[in-house]
């Protein structure tokens, strides 16, 4: 069973353009080709990279959305209506999103303009990938084909639990989230071992 995976990264820069009519466009890269990730995984440690062309089929066949922090109720743009444009180039998966003239659009614009939010994240389902064992004994997963689900602007957390602690300490919530995360990692390990 292929599950949704989410990857977050700090971008070199999310560019903001504003024209004379007040239209605001964000541009940047959701992922760059063959750039190794930081170490991922809790029990099974590995690095990951994406191969050029990984999202090509998905970009042609699917309707993607640009969200605020993976929240499906906070849509900032969409490929179906042309407010989100996604394109694979020689560097990576490039996005352009025209921000709506809404409270969410205005808040997004201000947060990125001030530098409070400088992260980009994307959700995907791997369709074809391979794992190599390089000399440094850190497995490298190369995603060769994937279904892109969404791209999001995020306030990049260094660790997943940093978001939880910023909201206050709740031991039951942390226990449930840790248990869910452990189960997800075990499932991923089993999937990787099937290769």
List keywords for this structure.
195 residues; alpha+beta; six-stranded mixed sheet; four-stranded antiparallel sheet
Computed over alpha carbons, the radius of gyration is 17 Å
Instruction: Work out the helix count.
Output: 4
Number of domains: 2
H/E element sequence: EEEEHEEEEHEEHH
Helix proportion range: 10-25%
Largest sheet: 6 strands, mixed
Low-confidence stretches: 157-175
Query: N-to-C terminal Cα separation, in Å?
Result: 14 Å
Strand tally, please? 10
Given the helix and strand composition, which structural class is it? alpha+beta
Give the overall form. elongated
Explained architecture:
This protein is of the alpha+beta class. It has two domains: 5-156, no CATH class; 159-195. Helix content is 24%, strand content 39%. Strands 1, 4, 5, 6, 9 and 10 form a six-stranded mixed β-sheet that branches. Strands 2-3-8-7 form a four-stranded antiparallel β-sheet, with helices on one face. The longest helix has 23 residues, at 171-193. The chain is elongated and about 55 Å long.
Describe the secondary structure blueprint for this structure.
Blueprint: E1 5-10, E2 15-18, E3 24-32, E4 47-50, H1 56-61, E5 65-68, E6 71-78, E7 84-88, E8 92-98, H2 103-114, E9 119-132, E10 140-154, H3 161-166, H4 171-193
Parallel strand pairs: 4-10, 5-10
Antiparallel strand pairs: 1-9, 2-3, 3-8, 5-6, 7-8, 9-10
């Amino acid at each position: 069973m292929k599950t949704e995976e989410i990857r977050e990264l700090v971008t070199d820069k999310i560019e903001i353009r504003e024209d004379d009519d007040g239209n605001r466009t964000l541009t940047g890269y959701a992922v760059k080709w063959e750039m190794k990730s930081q170490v991922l995984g809790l029990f099974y440690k590995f690095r990951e990279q994406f191969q050029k062309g990984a999202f090509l089929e998905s970009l042609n066949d699917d309707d993607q959305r640009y969200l605020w922090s993976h929240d499906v109720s906070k849509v900032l743009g969409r490929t179906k209506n042309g407010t989100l444009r996604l394109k694979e180039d020689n560097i990576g998966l490039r996005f352009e999103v025209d921000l709506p003239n809404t409270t969410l659009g205005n808040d997004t614009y201000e947060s990125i303009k001030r530098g409070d939010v400088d992260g980009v994240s994307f959700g995907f389902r791997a369709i074809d990938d391979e794992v190599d064992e390089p000399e440094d004994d850190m497995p490298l997963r190369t995603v060769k084909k994937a279904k892109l689900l969404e791209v999001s602007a995020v306030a990049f957390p260094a660790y997943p639990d940093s978001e939880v602690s910023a909201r206050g300490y709740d031991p039951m919530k942390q226990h449930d989230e840790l248990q869910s995360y452990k189960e997800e990692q075990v499932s991923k390990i089993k999937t990787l071992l099937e290769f």
